[in-house]
Amino acid sequence: MLFSGINPGLMTAATGHHFARPGNRFWPVLHLSGFTPRLLRPAEQEELLTYGLGITNVVARATARADELTAEEYAEGGRLLAEKVARLRPRWLAVVGVTAYRAAFGDRTARVGPQERTIGDTRVWVLPNPSGLNAHWTAATMAAEYARLREAAEAG
């Protein structure tokens, strides 16, 4: 499983650890959904590899907010992410953020959940963005969606 965030926030850029901003719910949701046996801290991101999980971003440029990214950055990021997926060949790509997925892959009708698109043999799933700005998703409802992906991945 390769998780792809939107882009590094300023705290991530400063620390080198994904989803490092206090209040970001990625790490708690990853644990609550059963992907990790314990709650990992951002500084422990390397441990994801022991669980068959990886982490990257759609766009490399750090910003305070994802809405600072341009349409061109999203499109180029989607192209580069597809190349990375084709090279690494994970069974699943999980894009964290439906708006980012829509912009990066030109799919304006995408919804959270499994996508028809594949990249080679890699299946694609869109997950809710765990940013605290995405308040209409609670940690519990996000964990349920992440668990749905985990169960689909475990089933094959």
Features:
globular; alpha/beta; about 35% helix; about 160 residues; single chain; five-stranded mixed beta sheet
Give a written overview of the molecule.
There is one protein chain. By secondary structure, this protein is an alpha/beta fold. Helix content is 36%, strand content 17%. It has a five-stranded mixed sheet, sandwiched between helices. A hairpin with a 2-residue loop joins strand 4 and strand 5. Helix 3 packs across helix 4 (98-105). The model has no long low-confidence stretch (mean pLDDT 95).
Topology:
Elements: E1 2-5, H1 10-15, H2 26-32, E2 54-57, H3 71-88, E3 92-96, H4 98-105, E4 113-119, E5 122-127, H5 139-155
Parallel strand pairs: 1-2, 1-3, 3-5
Antiparallel strand pairs: 4-5
Helix pairs in contact: 2-5, 3-4
Helices and strands, in order, run as EHHEHEHEEH
Distance between the termini: 12 Å
The total count of helices amounts to: 5
| Sheet of most strands | 5 strands, mixed
Compact overview of the structure:
The chain is α/β, with parallel strands linked by helices. The protein has five helices and five strands, in the order E-H-H-E-H-E-H-E-E-H.
